[in-house]
């Protein structure tokens, strides 16, 4: 499922098959569901690991899709394993390389030697491949998981409606702010562990709704967006709230509990369900640096 535009000549969300691809992504989203319990003993390390992944991805000019996929793999793997700090750092790098192998050109895949300031020189390629294999086996080699970044590009194509541009000059002004705000909310969605349990398509749709609200566009959730996403406006209340924006104060939304099922087409429960896996212990004590990295 390498749908990153960097790997292909065109952008899938702009093709005539975009609707079919979106439906397939939603199917994969349901198929790849796992339970997230927030039970990792090392969850306090998550901000540092996120920063590491972002810094490496920026250095290697990787796409936002790869970053989201890497963090998704890391979150669910850590949730089911007890990792030491340095091992967690190695796992985060392995998640990023796996994501890059799916979404990037070979030239944009980080090399082990680029992490020598974090990982011991004693970590060989075979050791690193072992960690990658542990991650692949945990996910049953099913690591091509749809993320917020996959869905957001499709929803962005349907962001505007005709009444948004009541003045010709407003179009350029809105589009200039639009991409920056979308990227801001995407980053915020990665920082919240509470959003991990929600479908990626729901989080992506909530980002679009919140962005329209931030830009002062009315309605916040258009008929077109409802049709392409399969979500009603009230389905997105909790996600919008978790994004940390004041979406509900100015508008009367209907509160939705976690068991709510919408009648809208293609909708799935906002909480990702799945089989709970027993947490295991993964440690590579002899090959990891003992010192911690300061940020």
UniProtKB/TrEMBL annotation:
SMART domains: Cyclin_C. The keyword Glycoprotein does not apply. Keywords: Cyclin. GO terms for molecular function: cyclin-dependent protein serine/threonine kinase regulator activity. This is Cyclin-J. GO terms for biological process: mitotic cell cycle phase transition. Pfam families: Cyclin_C, Cyclin_N. The lineage of its organism: Eukaryota, Metazoa, Ecdysozoa, Arthropoda, Hexapoda. It comes from the Eukaryota. The keyword Oxidoreductase does not apply. Residues 146-272 form the Cyclin C-terminal domain. InterPro entries: Cyclin, Cyclin-like_sf, Cyclin_A/B-like, Cyclin_C-dom, Cyclin_N. It comes from Sipha flava. Transmembrane segments: none annotated.
